[in-house]
Amino acid sequence: MIKPEILAPAGSLEKLKIAIDFGADAVYIGGGRLNLRAFSDNFTNEEMAEGVKYCHDRGKKLYVTMNVFPRNHDLKGVEEYIKGLYDLGIDAIIAADPSIVMAAKIAAPDLEIHLSTQANTVNWMATKFWYEQGVKRVVLARELTLNEINVIKENIPEDCELEVFIHGSMCIAYSGRCLISNYMLGRDANKGICSNACRYKYYLVEETRPGEYYPVVEDDNGTYIMNSKDLCMIKHIPELIKSGIHSLKIEGRMKSEFYVASVVKAYREAVDSYIANPEGYEFKQEWMDTLLKISHRQYHTGFFFGKTGEQNYDVSSYVRDYDIVGIVQSYDPETKEATILQKNRVFEGDVVEVLRAHTPNFNVKLDEMFDVEKKVKTNVANRAHMVFKAKVETPLKEKDMLIKGKKVLEL
């Protein structure tokens, strides 16, 4: 049985560390060039070097995305860039275009190449083709069913690795190749500057009746014919592991620290639970509860079990029932004071939930708040990234994440 890697998104150095701390086996990041998240906090060389060290010191891996479809002018200096990545010690690049694959083989022959889902690999012959071009791992297209993935696995070399997305947003385009954003706003989704135009509200207009707008479905807000649900496979870990997939990938380099911590925590616990005791494995509702607290659209299982219900017909907004309000920097067991970095507004007396790696969530109350910078007592932490102290009876740990629901909690 293959124990699959849990691969987490890291849109910043802080998120990278959170992903690793909460149990990711590897992270994928964007560097300064040629990745499809131009608006995330892409890494400088210095940050990348620190990220590589943080991962490697803990036995984890770091991959760099280079998954755009480059035009001729984009290729200038690409070999030097890849060589620089290799020298920094990254573990692999994720490429979609043959030009990047070719450049990597020339510039850094020993560097692992992973093929992006953008390459639309949907069958075993294509998978084998890329393997023969020097690709170590293929990230399969999201359109595949689990049965199709099993067929691919049965027909490729044993050391050819497969990776699939198991959680997060779904592109409404064939494996993410989208022209809507470019057409409407001049922002090319295939070069990392997607406008998320598929999330807009759309109506139909018949050409001989300009100005008359026709909603296609049920409600007063219009239709959402291109709004996908979010992928969530937390209830199907046994099926994923039995298929022999090497890497379970989480979408979301532009998502929050709260998202990264929660999703990694849930899937880490589920995978470890199955690997430890396949016969006695039982799904735990607390894993789904963790995933329901983050910002998300309605969850579904994508195409894994057939093409059913992949459209989100009834809502265009995200569900946001919880916010991250702080990250613990330290805790003094003698004074019972926690030093906390503020992330969202939180009040003295609030009961918050503690999100901690490898530990069930629990609630604590924040008492006797103190503004560290202004050196005064306060009843609210409402400045961005302010550092404050609070008395907390239950011991906390550095990097504990404090989250707060929209509904009032009580101890």
From TrEMBL:
Q: Name one Pfam family in it.
A: Peptidase_U32_C
Q: Which UniProt keywords apply?
A: Hydrolase, Protease
Q: Which GO terms describe its molecular function?
A: peptidase activity
Task: Output the superkingdom of the source species.
Answer: Bacteria
Provide a GO biological process annotation. Answer: proteolysis
Query: Locate the Peptidase family U32 C-terminal domain: which residues?
Result: 320-402
Q: Please state which protein family the record places this protein in.
A: Belongs to the peptidase U32 family.
Q: In its UniProt entry, what is this protein called?
A: U32 family peptidase
